[in-house]
Design brief:
The chain crosses the membrane at residues 6-23, 44-64, 76-94, 115-136, 156-175, 182-201, 221-242, 263-287, 299-323, 358-383, 389-407, 414-432, 438-461. It is a single chain. By secondary structure, this protein is mainly α. It has a single domain (4-23, 38-369), classed as Sodium/glucose cotransporter. 77% of the residues lie in helices and 0% in strands. It is built from 21 helices and no strands.
């Protein structure tokens, strides 16, 4: 008997590989164009690329998992991402494109010096490694939960996800990542919308959710904000504003646009695309809790999808997997750009291969992909780990925004010490749980306070300014 969901996934993968090969040929062995794809995308391609970056494992199965206990307010994760994208479009996009920089680390070196650049590179690698690894993990969880007859365990499914995600980026580069997001976003929307409609109205999910909320008034399942609370929602917004305004994988998308207008509007349209998916997945998580009250939060979305007809389950599976792929591939390209331009080609050994950047960049993608796969075996909670990884970007955003918007105030030494403070925040947050109580258990607030104080204090004391 044919496994319809798996066949749908394989057809989808085949289409993506065909697209990647086409984009690879189109790149004509141009190493810089392969990673940066600079000035190529129109408004709509920019929109689906930034939306594809945002809508990943944390934005789908992570939200459904959180909704098991927090209700519909879990959907604010994607809305926080959207707010960050809009802020970036209004504050950073034009400034970054006009600056001529292609990497955040390059900008840091020119503004804050080599010491700041080195620690910025470390920070960028940590942030993007964490995000990529979590997408492998989420992709593996989805495949194993919905295709237990195909994959023997989660580890095998995670390995399969890693191989496919890495190969898409390896073969086609940033061009294939951008164009493939047209397919990815379409699949995500079709799969999630169809699944939500079937679960809520054909499977009785809506009535069950309403009845569960009425029977358990202490748990705000149907509230759009009470479950996460104001502090939780604001914490997400702070983290996402940091991410969209300083992480290489995010800001690099602005450079792919043909014009400032395409970049700004693309980020804003992409922000609108992010919002519905989050709340639809939250709805599915609440419905899963209502229909399967004895279920486990981490399998909330996969379990409910297993009850759907094979065709719908396969379509939704491909859509959720596409969400992971879109984020993983974009971040793989961003991380590879950092390792290529800011690390390898800055060494004496790397300069020998400047005429072979196309081949070198492919090798770097393969190495980066393998390393992040190894990292993925160390994570458990998707949403919690994602928030920690992204929170580092709050420190880097002070550097980026301070240097571009307030160069006469930003001190040269503020770059190094602010990023160092952000790394120290992650360490102290993990070692001393009591800190969380002071900052409403939101690492974003802690990072914002510490990095903000350090950046401002060092800038006030430092007489040597960025400009």
């Amino acid at each position: 008997m044919f496994n319809i969901p798996f066949i749908i996934v394989l057809v989808y993968v085949a289409l993506l590989f065909a697209l990647s090969i086409f984009m690879s040929v189109k790149a004509r062995r141009d190493g810089e164009n392969f990673l940066l794809y600079k000035g190529k995308n129109n408004m709509w391609l920019t929109a689906v690329t930034i939306a594809g970056l945002a809508i990943g494992g944390a934005s789908t199965i992570g939200i459904a998992e959180n909704a098991f206990t927090k209700g519909l307010s879990a959907g604010w994760y994607d809305l926080a991402w959207a707010i960050g994208a809009v802020v970036c479009s209004l504050v950073l996009v034009k400034k970054l494109r006009a600056s001529g920089y292609t990497t955040i680390s390059e900008m840091t070196r020119n503004m804050y010096g080599t010491a700041a650049e080195k620690i910025m590179i470390v920070s960028m690698i940590i942030i993007q490694c964490g995000i990529i690894a979590l997408q492998y993990k989420a992709g593996g969880s989805i495949l194993y939960s919905l295709l237990p007859g195909v994959f023997s365990d989660v580890k095998t499914a995670t390995l399969f996800s890693f191989i496919i995600f890495m190969l898409i980026a390896f073969v086609g580069g940033m061009g294939s990542v951008s164009v493939s997001n047209i397919m990815n976003i379409t699949l995500i929307y079709v799969g999630v919308i169809v699944a939500t409609f079937v679960v809520l109205f054909n499977e009785g999910g809506w009535d069950a959710a309403v009845a569960m909320a009425a029977a358990n008034p202490d748990v705000p399942y149907m509230s759009l904000w009470e479950g996460m609370g104001v502090s939780g929602i604001l914490g997400w917004i702070v983290v996402m504003c940091g991410n969209t305004n300083s992480v290489q994988g995010a800001v690099q998308i602005a450079l792919t646009s043909r014009s400032d207008k395409d970049a700004v509007r693309g980020f804003q349209i992409g922000a609108l695309m992010m919002i519905p998916v989050g709340f639809l997945c939250a709805l599915l998580g609440v419905a899963s809790k209502a229909l399967y009250p004895e279920g486990v939060a981490s399998t909330a979305l996969p379990v409910i999808l297993m009850s759907l007809p094979a065709g719908i389950a396969g379509l939704t599976l491909a859509g959720l997997w596409a969400a992971d792929m879109s984020t993983a591939c974009s971040m793989l390209i961003g991380l590879s750009t950092t390792c290529s331009r800011d690390v390898f080609f800055k060494t004496k050994f790397g300069k020998r291969f400047e005429e072979k950047t196309f081949l070198v960049n492919k090798i770097i993608i393969a190495i980066v992909g393998t390393v992040t796969y190894i990292v993925s075996t160390q994570f458990t909670s998707i949403l919690g780990a994602m928030q920690k990884a992204l929170s580092l970007a709050i420190g880097t955003s002070f550097i980026v925004l301070g240097g571009l918007l307030f160069p006469k105030f930003a001190g040269k030494r503020a770059g190094f010490f602010t990023i160092l403070a952000s790394i120290a925040c992650i360490i102290t947050w993990s070692l001393f749980p009591a800190i969380g109580k002071v900052f409403f258990n939101q690492i974003g607030f802690y990072m914002l306070a510490v990095c903000g104080i350090v950046f401002i204090a060092v800038s006030l004391l430092d007489k040597e300014k960025v400009a």
